[in-house]
Design goal:
The protein starts with a helix and ends with a strand. Strand 2 and strand 3 form a beta hairpin. The chain is mainly beta. The radius of gyration is 16 Å and the shape is globular. The protein has 2 helices and 13 strands, in the order αβββββββαββββββ.
Length: about 190
């Protein structure tokens, strides 16, 4: 019964969602898209992000990702992520507030009891003014966030990779994903 209620509330959230769309660029080429959705229902805020990209790095890479984050009364209650490359799981994570079921693939489960207000999901919809760190759902850790220019923020992940977020009038415009072998840009289209 609990699973049915959760599924129904998730479906309602999707139907009532504020949706954002981003194109994914590798150089000058559009190689994919990102869709972000936010819905608020009775003190709960649900964020859902999905992406699909195809590009060549030595051979063809088809990358699909999904993330969901649920806030209750402004605090993160649960989140999960999954990234698949050519249909194989590359990364995944799951956290439920106060549960011992938290994990980041392939690490064994660990306790993740915390009070978190800012995650990367929230950054799609709000500029993180004065935030020194952001909870990154894919690694289930707080990561440092520094202002790198006017309305621009640099998020440094545990492996030292960086994501740069650029806002205009408080609205996210681009995310630069800087990696060793390639860089991607998520550019807002709606």
């Amino acid at each position: 019964m609990l699973i049915l209620l959760h599924t129904l509330s998730l479906c309602t959230a999707i139907l009532n969602a504020q949706t954002l769309q981003f194109n994914v660029f590798k150089g000058d080429d559009v190689v994919g898209s990102v869709r972000a959705m936010r819905s608020e229902i009775a003190g709960r805020t649900i964020y859902i992000m999905t992406s699909h990209s195809e590009f060549d790095i030595i051979w063809k890479q088809v990358v699909r990702s999904s993330a969901i984050a649920e806030y209750i009364n402004g605090s993160l209650n649960s989140c999960s992520t999954s990234m698949r490359v050519n249909d194989a799981v590359r990364d995944s994570s799951s956290m439920v507030q106060g549960a011992d079921r938290c994990y980041v693939h392939p690490i064994v489960p660990f306790d993740c009891d915390r009070n978190t207000e800012w995650t990367t999901a929230r950054m799609y919809y709000e500029e993180p003014l004065s935030q020194p760190s952001i909870f990154v759902e894919s690694v289930l850790r707080e990561c440092p966030l520094t202002r790198s220019g006017p309305n621009t923020y640099l998020l440094t992940l545990p492996n030292k990779h960086t994501n740069r977020y650029t806002y205009l009038d408080g609205i996210l415009q681009e995310i630069h994903i800087d990696r060793s072998f390639f860089d991607l840009v998520f550019r807002r289209v709606s």
